[in-house]
Amino acid sequence: MTQTRIAGVIAAVPTPFDNHGDINADAFVEHARWCLDNGCDFLNVLGTTGEANSLSAAQRSALMTTAARGLDGRRLMVGTGTPDLETTAALTRRAFDLGFAAALVLPPYYYKPVEEDGLFAWFAELVRMTAETPISIYLYNFPQLTGIEFSPALSARLSQAFPERIHGAKDSSGNLAYARELAKIAGFGVFPSSEAALADAGRDAYAGCISATVNIDPRSSQQLWRDQENAELLEQVRGLRQAISAHPLIPAVKHLVGNRAGNTVWNKVLPPQMPITDRTRLESLDALRIGALVDA
């Protein structure tokens, strides 16, 4: 398998569950195909939006299999990070075997604080343990949830030590000054978590974006990726993201996906997430005018 360096507009896709908490494979594949057909270059499966850290390793592996069977794995990256190396390595090897383009890996987030030498050693061991299944690895920076930040120095060190494996990062910190520093690392693809950052991709050398709200209107994000100086389009993309982010993000995204698909299975979230039941919030979401849905 040729290693892949990904780029462009990437939706961090949610995971649909039935009332028993089991994954609904048909709904997942339908939405993923819709995203790929309507503006997404790649998809991120089993990230934060996908509620990956509420799932067991077996459940994650099962969804990976579902995705690989129903979609083109060359257009998929998958979250494989857990606090322990053995599970992370097993999921990362599985991603390679199933034909995924890349693995998105959280830092080992239980022990804090940790020295950067310790984080380097952890990722060096992950590279060693997956040497026979050499899938591209992207670092997942989300310090608000993990309590750990990949410093630009550590990111550069990992990239330089393992250029054949560690190819970039998703930054969910929201700190674009930090993202710009990461993007200065040679050969290191950086993906901010807001599609509004696509307007600055050429200037700041971003490789694209990986965003939860791209699920709702991927077409407009793709247009912005191609026409980064379009101020009107930027305001449209930014406004939709802000409107959705005014609500609890994961259930809001799932509610809107359910509206688009006409499938109430999307209203289920796993604890500790809670569904949106407030009528005012639901009416606000339902009132959103979304270009990709109106034009479809």
Explain what the structure shows.
The protein has 296 residues and is of the alpha/beta class. Helices cover 44% and strands 12% of the residues. The chain has helices at residues 25-37, 57-70, 85-97, 116-129, 143-146, 152-161, 176-183, 201-204, 218-226, 231-245, 249-261, 279-286, 291-295, and strands at residues 8-12, 42-45, 76-79, 102-105, 136-141, 166-171, 189-192, 208-211. Strands 7-6-5-4-3-2-1-8 form an 8-stranded parallel sheet, with helices on one face. Helix 2 packs parallel to helix 3 and helix 9 runs antiparallel to helix 10 (231-245). It starts with 7 loop residues before the first strand and ends with a helix.
Features:
single chain; 296 residues; alpha/beta; 13 helices; 12% strand; disordered C terminus
Low-confidence stretches: 292-296
Global structural class: alpha/beta
> Can you give the mean pLDDT?
96
Helix content: 40-55%
Approximate strand percentage: 5-15%
Specify Rg, calculated over alpha carbons. 18 Å
Strand order of the largest sheet: 7-6-5-4-3-2-1-8
Global geometry: globular
Order of helices and strands: EHEHEHEHEHHEHEHEHHHHH
Note the gap between the termini: 36 Å
Oligomer: single chain
Largest sheet entry: 8 strands, parallel
What's this model, at a glance?
By secondary structure, this protein is α/β, with parallel strands linked by helices. It has helices spanning 25-37, 57-70, 85-97, 116-129, 143-146, 152-161, 176-183, 201-204, 218-226, 231-245, 249-261, 279-286, 291-295, and strands spanning 8-12, 42-45, 76-79, 102-105, 136-141, 166-171, 189-192, 208-211.
